[in-house]
Specification:
Number of strands: 17
Shape: globular
Largest sheet: 8 strands, antiparallel
Strand content: over 45%
CATH class: Mainly Beta
InterPro entries: ConA-like_dom_sf, DUF1349
Structural class: mainly beta
CATH architecture: Sandwich
Oligomer: single chain
Radius of gyration: 15 Å
Pfam family, one: DUF1349
Organism: Streptosporangium longisporum
Protein name: DUF1349 domain-containing protein
CATH topology: Jelly Rolls
Distance between the termini: 39 Å
Number of helices: 0
Length: 198
């Protein structure tokens, strides 16, 4: 079993759902390397279920926001760096900076309640892409900032259970993907405005 990991943004140690090929942590930065053919997805149209992507998760109680600048070596289709909510093998949500089939870095969200859905949002450019998860009471929100300082709402939803939150790297069709989560920040304050992300 992998050793627990401590990060300044989390009050308690985090745990690995699946071990990575490699990882490192330095202050508010975390690097996770996924191996080939790694994913977390339950196909809504068929029997395929994948749950072997390395993910590091921990518990944050009450309302919170958790954000990070995500930089990923997006070499193959569906390579991604992900902020993750995980309430169990059949209840989880991913917020991804992912390589699309068109070869463009894309913001993607997936919510799984037994089976997964899959929603592509916007394509992005540059190296200042920040993803954020917020809990507002019993609901959750995904926001992205693309370097302008404005947090764009991507998704607002509920998820059964009391999910842990954390970080995932995946490479479903490729030979591996290294993801760097930089400037990881947590705030225990409730999000004041869902629509403009303040």
């Amino acid at each position: 079993m992998s050793e627990p990991v401590t990060l300044p943004a989390f009050p308690e140690p985090l745990r690995w759902l699946n071990p990575p090929v490699g990882w490192s942590a330095d202050g508010d930065d975390l690097s996770v390397e996924a191996g080939p053919n790694t994913d977390l997805f339950t196909d809504p149209g068929g029997p395929d279920r994948f749950a072997n992507a390395p993910a590091l998760v921990g518990r944050l109680d009450g309302d919170f926001t958790l954000s990070a600048r995500v930089r990923a070596d997006l070499l193959s289709t569906y390579d991604a760096g992900v902020l993750l909510l995980y309430a169990g093998e059949h209840a989880w949500a991913k917020f991804c900076l992912e390589m699309s089939p068109q070869g463009r870095p894309t913001i993607v969200s997936v919510v799984t309640r037994g089976v997964s859905d899959d929603c592509n949002s916007l394509t992005v450019e540059g190296d200042d892409i920040r993803l954020r998860i917020s809990r507002i009471g019993s609901a959750f929100a995904f926001h992205v900032s693309t370097g302008t300082g404005f947090w764009h709402l991507v998704r607002y939803f509920a998820l059964d259970g009391d999910p842990e939150v954390g970080f995932l790297a995946q490479s479903p069709t490729g030979q591996g993907c290294t993801v760097r989560f930089e400037d990881i920040r947590r705030s225990p304050e409730r999000l004041a405005d869902l629509r403009n992300g303040e």
